[in-house]
Amino acid sequence: MKIVLASASPRRRELLEQIGLAFEVSVSHVEEKTIAVEPGLVVEELSRQKAEVVLETLTCTEDVLVIGSDTVVSADGRILGKPSGEKDAVRMLERLSGRSHEVYTGVTLLYRTGGMSAAQVRQRIFHEMTKVDFYPMTQQEIADYVASGDCLDKAGAYGIQGLCARYIRGIEGDYHNVVGLPVGRLYQEMKELTG
Length: 195
Fold this sequence. Notes:
Largest sheet: 7 strands, mixed
Distance between the termini: 11 Å
Structural class: alpha/beta
Shape: elongated
Number of helices: 6
Strand content: 25-35%
Number of strands: 7
Helix content: 25-40%
């Protein structure tokens, strides 16, 4: 079975490599739009869109599993995606400083069997939520972190696995989910879907 990750995220690639999966990467380039407002439904919908776009481009005749994923941060019921720039990153970090928030990652698995002509597609769509608690950050700490550039391509303007780890008081749930992919659950869902 061929496995294709529908994401340009280096963190998701590292997580799949960590659990020993051989896979290819095909970026979806889909415009992310959804009418959903609840964070779990938002990430499920966006992950589905990414996976479907990539599956449509694949012409291989072997069985293929496409993994689509999307992550958002939710603070006080407000969704924080990737910051649009440094000012936006500062605003997000000020909102998260000294407080708890939730990280939602949606995953879509599309498993196509039977080649192109007699293709059958089965799917699994799910999301994981992890609660993250931040220590307070001073304005200078926020400015220094933003200046590092570590925050600009990450939901909520931070990466738990990088410099921002010094501000994490604790988490409830799956650490890997905060990095960008709940690989334990992903692996179990893959086994059930393709087994």
